[in-house]
């Protein structure tokens, strides 16, 4: 019974605060760097094209913005095929 | 920016980006608290065209001259400074209501602050909302900045932008005040928490002011909230003033575990 009530309560809880944090994380990352979801996609495609010219890519490359404190960096993770 | 702190005096700009988060209330109460502690304090309203500080401090009937008249040489600084009616060490330099933000320059504000440094321990600048000329005027003379925000997405976003602009202007001392937090709503998962805000904004916390309806009552009367000893906001503003003066004051846990219902809620949220 208690577990059931806890579950209902938890479901209510995970609502708006989590949503706010999630939205802020994305919007602040874009505000700080002057980027957008679209720009990150464009960057990803172009970076992959450049890499592909020289080496073979294995798997799905990832391009994201990472933060340390108020500093931001572009994190590019491109798995390369071994010989 | 970051002027050397001449004879120990500090010029502190209180800013937020977004309007309505409680900048003026913060400036009024923190400066009153510091004046009550014995410091000589001046407050400068730079929200030219939309002045509020005189009203919040209950000094609107004593205003004769304003900051633009001082800058344009129509009166002296001494003539324009309004002495507070409760605290002997507190003075306010009113904004002009019929002028606008472009009527003064950052250099003029800086010169004015430098003139005031010799007479005051603390000079607080009440910055207008926005990131335009008024903001540039307000930050030009300041050694330190206080960013006021609310636990609400749009206020946090604007605070982040302001912090970025202060960093670009070479501010080294930027601290955060979280105003109008409701711990009951944080607990129930419907408001951003202190930790959430610090994680997003990544700056040092100066204080947390709980939502308190006494603030509205005090504002109606033109009295500082710090005079109401029972108010939670008053305690918070007093603590902030003490921290600004260099005292170590812990940030209290505002959780309301005392009531029956909140204990039940805590039980279920574990």
TrEMBL record, chain A:
GO BP: cell division; regulation of division septum assembly
Gene3D superfamilies with a match to the protein in the record: Cell division topological specificity factor MinE (3.30.1070.10)
Keywords: Cell cycle, Cell division
InterPro entries: MinE, MinE_sf
Pfam short name (any one): MinE
Family affiliation: Belongs to the MinE family.
Protein name: Cell division topological specificity factor
Annotated source species: Thermosyntropha lipolytica DSM 11003
From TrEMBL, chain B:
UniProt key word Cell cycle: yes
Entry superkingdom: Bacteria
Domain CobQ/CobB/MinD/ParA nucleotide binding: 12-225
UniProt xrefs under InterPro entries: CobQ/CobB/MinD/ParA_Nub-bd_dom (IPR002586), MinD (IPR010223), MinD_FleN (IPR025501), P-loop_NTPase (IPR027417), ParA/MinD_ATPase (IPR050625)
Keyword Glycoprotein: no
Binding, ATP: 18-25
Record keywords, A-Z: ATP-binding, Cell cycle, Cell division, Nucleotide-binding, Septation
GO biological process: division septum assembly; negative regulation of cell division
Record-level Gene Ontology MF annotations: ATP binding; ATP hydrolysis activity
Any single Gene Ontology cellular-component annotation: cytoplasmic side of plasma membrane
Recorded family membership: Belongs to the ParA family. MinD subfamily.
Entry function: ATPase required for the correct placement of the division site. Cell division inhibitors MinC and MinD act in concert to form an inhibitor capable of blocking formation of the polar Z ring septums. Rapidly oscillates between the poles of the cell to destabilize FtsZ filaments that have formed before they mature into polar Z rings.
Matches recorded under NCBIfam families: minD_bact
Name of this chain's protein: Septum site-determining protein MinD
Organism: Thermosyntropha lipolytica DSM 11003
């Amino acid at each position: 019974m208690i577990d059931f009530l806890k579950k209902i309560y938890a479901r209510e809880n995970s609502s708006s605060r989590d949503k706010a944090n999630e939205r802020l994380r994305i919007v602040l990352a874009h505000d700080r760097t002057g980027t957008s979801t679209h720009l990150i996609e464009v960057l990803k495609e172009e970076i992959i094209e450049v890499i592909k010219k020289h080496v073979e890519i294995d798997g799905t490359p990832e391009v994201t913005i990472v933060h340390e404190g108020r500093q931001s960096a572009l994190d590019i993770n491109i798995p390369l095929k071994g010989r | 920016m970051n002027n050397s702190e001449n004879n120990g005096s500090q010029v502190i700009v209180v800013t937020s980006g977004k309007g309505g988060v409680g900048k003026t209330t913060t400036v009024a109460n923190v400066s009153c608290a510091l004046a009550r502690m014995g410091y000589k304090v001046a407050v400068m309203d730079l929200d030219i065209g939309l002045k509020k500080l005189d009203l919040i401090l209950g000094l609107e009937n004593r205003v004769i001259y304003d900051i633009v008249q001082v800058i344009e040489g129509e009166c002296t600084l001494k003539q324009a400074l309004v002495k507070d009616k409760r605290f002997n060490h507190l003075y306010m330099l009113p904004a002009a209501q019929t002028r606008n933000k472009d009527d003064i320059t950052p250099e003029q504000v800086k010169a004015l602050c430098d003139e005031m440094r010799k007479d005051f321990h603390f000079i607080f600048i009440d910055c207008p909302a926005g990131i335009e000329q008024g903001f540039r005027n307000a930050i030009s003379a300041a050694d330190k900045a206080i960013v006021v925000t609310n636990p609400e997405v749009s206020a946090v976003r604007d605070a982040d932008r302001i912090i970025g602009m202060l960093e670009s202007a070479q501010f080294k001392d930027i601290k955060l005040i979280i105003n109008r937090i409701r711990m009951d709503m944080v607990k129930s998962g419907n408001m951003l928490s202190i930790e959430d805000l610090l994680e997003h904004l990544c700056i040092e916390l100066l204080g947390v002011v709980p939502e308190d309806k006494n603030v509205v009552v005090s504002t109606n009367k033109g009295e500082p909230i710090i005079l109401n000893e029972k108010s939670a906001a008053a305690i918070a503003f007093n603590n902030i003033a003490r921290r600004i003066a260099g005292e170590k004051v812990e940030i209290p846990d505002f959780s309301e575990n005392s009531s029956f219902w909140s204990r039940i809620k805590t039980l279920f949220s574990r």
